[in-house]
């Protein structure tokens, strides 16, 4: 029997040029424990994960697996020692089917036995309690679907040590429950789990120990039972226990109907939406969205939320029905996405890596995307570098983005910090219609509160906001009305104060 | 044209297609893994030269073929080392390879063979007995060079490999989403180097076929654009080996036909016929679907972290 830690970091540091991403961190993870790694955006959680999984090498310090010093030169070495990772940004091949993604790296080089592979995937999925189609193209799945594949793929390797980097952020409450049950089960088999998360509820629910990171350093490490939620929040934000915390946004106090106009900004009638694979996502939905209100779209992901947002953003065309946007004549789909943006539509996409940013370009260039028609940034077709850089610097300050400066390629930022820039860009120039798909996904508590505050601010200014969220807490905190999509149907819209979480939960479950 | 001429044109068209086919098959595998090699023309020249040189010296065309393969692997690895390890731009390295191949083969030819004509020991014709005496199908299907059958079989085998095996899956993932493949435990650079070497070896065989099976002897720059036609075949076939087979056959038959048409229509300048296969290549590329998307990371180096 093994007594020592299964994995130990000993004085590990990682620097990127001048940036010290990880500063002298030591951690021990015992056999069969669930270990929470928490911290604000850019604290260094993913960097720790990448060092544990062999993706990057520490600049200093050593990593031990079962007491033995290791120097992983690639993920292959870590996998060989039974270390399996679910990445924050999925490592999936979009052009491959689910089954092919499973086979990658594990199947022998010879002929693929597809039927055996499919059977194995179905069994595994059934054991966790989810349903997946092994022949579906991964690129056609929404982010929640891809997240499930990524998790199952890691489980399929039968790891001794499983690392999950923000796995539950995009999952529906039911799927998150299933994930936690699966974690419980493998923990009983003596498998260790590291869980990176921004949701403190998860920490208290399934974790044994917790480590708090802040600005690349380990602030504290200990048994979960030794901490109260407020302690952890305070430790993440300030590095100390018992500091005064900024207050949460208080939506209900704001005058919800102050700027609310009579003419709807968005008019959706008899909309029928199809998924990429041709199946019907929503059979018929109609609603109005007025200026000065936040309409939330709740529901288990994959029930048409993705298609709804993309149709309104002009990125795909609805199967039937009509969408009207008060700022433009006629049917919305007759206008290009560019025309829509110029008319005041803004879109925070659910898949930020693919639809939100260009990883290799700088923060400034990414901020410019979609604002190329704006005279403040582009004059006579020439980019006004100074003003773009100035604006980006301002945004970095306002949102507290952790970066070396406006010219750093955005791909180098932590996931949450990338999201902040997307939000800043979309909030810029005061849009009259804002589509926000999971805007606070992957954000730390402080920034989530900031974003929710901004949404309220823009609503009170008179913007119409369509908020897609899987988080009922968020919906109850800021939305005015809610609709639920489930099983090709739309429930609602109902004003938040005329419904209950129980009712919305029942709709989500399809009752 | 009567039947005899047509049959002869098709039969020799298949022969003309083989150098292109081998090169295109190798390039398909290499590009699937993300390594673009525009220098296969140069590798084919080296292959053609080595095959002639070594088979003359040893008296065996088979040893010559092996030498061409070895030369192809060496140049494929050189390209791989440049673009995969040193991360040199793939187009630049490929063009350097064209120049290098042309220079080395021409220089070696003058040095080793005095630039003169040599008698190249031929491959023994494959004897398929009665089959080869059948009308039409006899000369077209059953009188080909042994390597031609290898090439055709290889097209189907590689098609199967890429689509249906774990190896193919690995290669495709490396060309599509190397980050994901690396996370799955695949060594990206190693796979790319191997595929570049494989591509080089097949380009070497293509060159050897040209100088020892299709023709008998080496002439400077004798590949004359076939390497580039092979690149076009890869794109036109949408990176599918069996598609590359048909594309290569189309070019080969067009090439064989133009040679015969030169004789049939002496009034028309012969250059008009020579460009025929290239015109077909250009037209084919403009056809719908011809511009389909290749491997997403084609031509891009993989950097960790
Ligand atoms: N390739 C890189 N080059 C330069 N800096 C980097 C690079 N990768 C990460 N960093 C920096 O390291 C720091 C830690 O990033 P990391 O991704 O580990 O944060 P995180 O804790 O996972 O945050 P999040 O909650 O937003 O995912 C960030 O400030 C980031 O900018
Ligand atoms: Mg992270």
TrEMBL record, chain A:
CDD domains: ABC_Carb_Monos_I, ABC_Carb_Monos_II
GO molecular function, one term: ATP binding
Protein family: Belongs to the ABC transporter superfamily.
Keywords: ATP-binding, Nucleotide-binding
Pfam family name, one: ABC_tran
Record domain ABC transporter: where: 7-240, 266-511
InterPro entries referenced in this protein's UniProt entry, alphabetically: AAA+_ATPase, ABC_carbohydrate_import_ATPase, ABC_transporter-like_ATP-bd, ABC_transporter-like_CS, P-loop_NTPase
Name of the protein in its database record: Heme ABC transporter ATP-binding protein
């Amino acid at each position: 029997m093994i007594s020592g830690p299964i994995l130990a970091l000993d004085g590990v540091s990682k620097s990127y040029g001048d940036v010290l991403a990880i500063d002298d961190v030591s951690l021990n993870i015992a056999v069969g424990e669930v270990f929470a790694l928490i911290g604000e955006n850019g604290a260094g959680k993913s960097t720790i994960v990448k060092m544990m999984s062999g993706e990057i090498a520490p600049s200093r310090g050593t990593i031990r697996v079962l007491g033995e010093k290791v120097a992983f030169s690639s993920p292959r070495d870590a996998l060989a020692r039974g270390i399996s990772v679910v990445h924050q940004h999925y490592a999936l091949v979009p052009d491959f089917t689910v089954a092919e993604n499973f086979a990658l790296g594990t199947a022998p080089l010879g002929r693929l036995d597809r039927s055996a592979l499919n059977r194995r995937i179905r069994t595994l999925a059934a054991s966790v309690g989810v349903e997946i189609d092994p022949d579906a193209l991964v690129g056609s799945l929404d982010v929640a679907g891809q997240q499930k594949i990524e998790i199952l793929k890691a489980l399929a390797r039968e790891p001794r040590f499983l690392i999950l980097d923000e796995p539950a952020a995009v999952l529906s409450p039911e799927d998150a429950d299933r994930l936690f049950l699966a974690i419980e089960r493998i923990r009983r088999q003596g498998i260790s789990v590291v869980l990176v998360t921004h949701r403190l509820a998860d920490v208290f629910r399934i974790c044994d120990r917790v480590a708090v990171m802040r600005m690349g350093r380990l602030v504290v490490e200990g048994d979960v039972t030794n901490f109260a939620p407020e302690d952890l929040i305070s430790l993440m934000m300030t590095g100390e226990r018992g500091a005064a915390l900024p207050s949460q946004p208080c939506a209900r106090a704001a005058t919800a109907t102050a700027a609310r106009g009579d003419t709807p900004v968005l008019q959706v009638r008899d909309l029928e939406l199809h998924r990429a694979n041709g199946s019907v996502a929503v059979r018929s939905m109609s609603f109005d969205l007025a200026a000065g209100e936040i309409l939330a779209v709740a529901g288990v992901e994959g029930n048409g939320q993705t298609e709804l947002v993309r149709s309104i953003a002009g990125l795909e065309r609805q199967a039937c029905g009509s969408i009207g946007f008060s700022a433009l004549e006629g049917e919305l789909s007759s206008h290009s996405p560019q025309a829509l943006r110029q008319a005041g539509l803004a879109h925070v996409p659910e898949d930020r890596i693919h639809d939100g940013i260009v990883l290799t370009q700088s923060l400034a260039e990414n901020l410019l995307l979609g604002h190329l028609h704006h005279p403040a940034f582009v004059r006579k077709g020439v980019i006004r570098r100074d003003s773009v850089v100035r604006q980006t610097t301002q945004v970095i300050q306002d949102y507290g983005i952790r970066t070396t400066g406006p010219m750093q390629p955005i791909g180098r930022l932590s996931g949450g910090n990338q999201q902040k820039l997307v939000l800043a860009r979309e909030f810029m120039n005061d849009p009259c219609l804002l589509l926000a798909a999971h805007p606070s996904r992957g954000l730390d508590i402080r920034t989530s509160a900031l974003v929710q505050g901004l949404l309220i601010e823009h609503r009170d200014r008179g913007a119409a906001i369509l908020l897609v969220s899987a988080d009922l807490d968020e919906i109850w905190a800021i939305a005015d009305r809610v609709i639920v999509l489930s099983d090709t149907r739309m429930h609602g819209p109902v004003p938040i104060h005329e419904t209950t979480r129980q009712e919305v939960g029942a709709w989500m479950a399809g009752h | 044209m009567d039947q005899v001429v047509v049959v002869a044109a098709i039969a020799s068209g298949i022969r003309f297609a083989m150098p292109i086919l081998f090169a295109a098959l190798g390039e398909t595998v290499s590009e699937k893994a993300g390594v673009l090699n525009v220098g296969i023309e140069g590798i084919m020249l080296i292959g053609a030269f080595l095959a002639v040189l070594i088979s003359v010296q040893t008296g065996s065309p088979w040893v010559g073929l092996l030498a061409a393969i070895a030369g192809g692997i060496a140049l494929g690895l050189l390209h791989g080392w440049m673009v995969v390890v040193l991360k040199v731009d793939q187009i630049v390295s490929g063009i350097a390879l064209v120049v290098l191949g042309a220079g080395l083969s021409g220089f070696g030819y003058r040095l080793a063979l005095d630039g003169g004509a040599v008698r190249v020991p031929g491959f023994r014709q494959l004897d398929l007995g009665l089959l080869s005496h059948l009308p039409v199908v006899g000369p077209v299907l059953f009188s080909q060079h042994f390597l031609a059958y290898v090439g055709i079989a290889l097209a189907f085998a590689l098609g199967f490999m890429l689509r249906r095996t774990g190896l193919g899956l690995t290669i495709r993932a490396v060309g599509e989403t190397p980050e994901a493949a690396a996370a799955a435990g695949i060594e990206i650079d190693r796979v790319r180097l191997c595929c570049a070497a494989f591509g080089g070896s097949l380009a070497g065989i293509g060159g050897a076929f040209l100088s020892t099976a299709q023709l008998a002897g080496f002439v400077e720059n004798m590949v004359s654009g076939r390497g580039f036609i092979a690149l076009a075949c890869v794109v036109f076939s949408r990176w599918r080996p069996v598609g590359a087979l048909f594309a290569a056959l189309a070019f080969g038959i067009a090439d064989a036909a133009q040679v015969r048409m030169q004789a049939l229509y002496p009034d028309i300048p012969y250059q008009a016929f020579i460009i025929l296969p290239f015109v077909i290549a250009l037209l084919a590329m403009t056809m719908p679907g011809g511009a389909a998307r290749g491997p997403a990371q084609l031509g891009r180096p993989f950097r960790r972290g």
